[in-house]
Amino acid sequence: MFQAATFGLAVVAGNWAVPLLERQGASSAAAGLAGGLILLAGILTRPTGGLLAGRVSGRRLVAASLVGTSAGAILLALGGSFALSTLGSLLLGLMAGLPFAVIFAAAQRVRPDAPGAAIALVNACAVLTILVGTPLAGLAFELPSDGRLAFAIIAALSAAAFIPLRAARL
Length: 170
What we know:
Layout lengths: L1 H22 L4 H26 L4 H21 L3 H16 L2 H11 L4 H26 L7 H13 L10
Helix pairs in contact: 1-2, 1-3, 1-4, 1-6, 1-7, 2-4, 3-4, 3-7, 5-6, 6-7
């Protein structure tokens, strides 16, 4: 669930950030650079999260990631200035990558007899989120919000992952 609420939703956001920013008046090049920050930043913070995992509890790292992922999506949903939207893209991407190591280590601890299957299940949840979420987010671009509703929903879904966080074995 946490991989879906961070990585999965970040990929959905990354797929739609460019059209969102273009509709807000950004050039295609600027929108591509700003929107691409979501995916690039997520790559960069995966190892950072692994380094932090030894110093910060897994639950805190995942909680911070959910807050940051939600906040970044909210900044994009607000439809403010290009600078604010770019900050949202960067924040969403940076925070979505942080819990990667914690999530996969937890999956392996839950199923030490089948660590590969545990990792595959975690990845399958994120991929399913991407497969279902990407076209659904596209539907929001047909609504009067010009796609901002999709990012509000991404923020809400990421925040909703707080509900099972207390019970998670991280």
